[in-house]
# Entry
Amino acid sequence: MSRTTTDNPRPDRDPSIRLRLPERMQAVIRYGALDDLLPPEHEARVVWAVVCAQDLSDFHAAVRAVAGSPGRDATDPRVLIALWLYATLDGVGSARELDRLCRECDPYKWLAGGVSLNYHTLADFRVGRIGGGGDHAAALDGLLTRMVATLVGKGLVKVWRISQDGTRVRACAGASSFRREKRLAKLLEEAKKHVAELRALLDDPERSAGLSAQQKAARERAARERQARVEAAIAALPRLKEKQAKLAKKVSQKDKKAGKLKEPRASTTDDQARVMKMPDGGFRPAVNVQLAVDTDSRAIVGVDVTSSGVDTGQAEPMRRQVQERTGREVKEHLMDGGYLVFEEIDRATQEGVTVYCPPKPPRNPELRGSEYEPRPTDSQAVKDWRARMGSEEGKEVYKERAATSETANAELKSRCGVTRLLVRGLDKARCVALWFALAYNLSHFAKELIG
# Structure
């Protein structure tokens, strides 16, 4: 509401002119329902319609609030699922930010529907936890399976030919949190000493008189968690040493003397994160997000997250996952050269799967010839693969990889803003990747998933 007035004159304004000035102290009575906040075609309504069309019985199984039991009612899983799907499409990855939007932004207020929420509930639900200790990470994976099954049933997804690609996403671990074994042992000793000293302080009524019960519990929990993170980092070292030993066999003596093989380090923030080479050429803590896409429909049909900095060995597990998720057999598998393993090509051929993967150019073409020419040590499956990738037909088929899985990875980073994870651990990171896959399929197949 504004008012026309000539008072409150300013030196640079003629006092005789009349202006409409803002009146922010005027009380206003407004009537309306939450449903009036959004137009009928708004994307939030589409998200809600898709969620309501899904079978969410797996999420209900973890709810402990039942008739005749004490405690307040549980939050409807549809509300939490819809909020995170819409937030993922909107590029929101912070539970605190989503909590704020549920109070201030109309689409989020409409999806919440008047249900009170806090960032703890939202954060736990996103990474597969439910208040009271419940776990629904498997239910989240099952939701993606049912979505894909719906598209398979309607003939949109065939998985005859799938495309796979990996992208490295910055992990929630600082570069300075990576320590070598000697330093980790010292940090563990300090952490244990701190826990003991804190326990002695809290047990002394005089020394802890100024602390509330909540403050005592918070300090004790922080000390225990710090010790647990250091212990987890130490427990990760044997696996890193084993990997380092395998790598040492492939590295030349010249590189060893140059110090290229360094002592393995583990993070005291996230023991499952690894330092990886990023697309910009730098090295940072990251995880490897793997996506499989059906080339006909461009639907995401497979999701995985690993701590390996390379894609080697990721093709077979993904193909098995896609076949289990869809109930269909994969006949053609497209992947880039980073997945190349000759033994896997042999096994894929035995399973009736045709692999499309570009061979690596030889270091000395004058001696070795073209990468498409067979080698004396090649099996028949590898010889056929070389000939296939050297043919015009094979190259034309391989072009579909860039047009499918790479576009899905690009949408993950551009639209959904998944450039850095705000969660720690591979299990939580996989839940975040599942939310993206669900949101991606929803945005591309909303009509089919509703009907």
About this structure: The chain has a mean pLDDT of 87. The chain has three domains: 37-135, 157-174+274-450, 177-267.
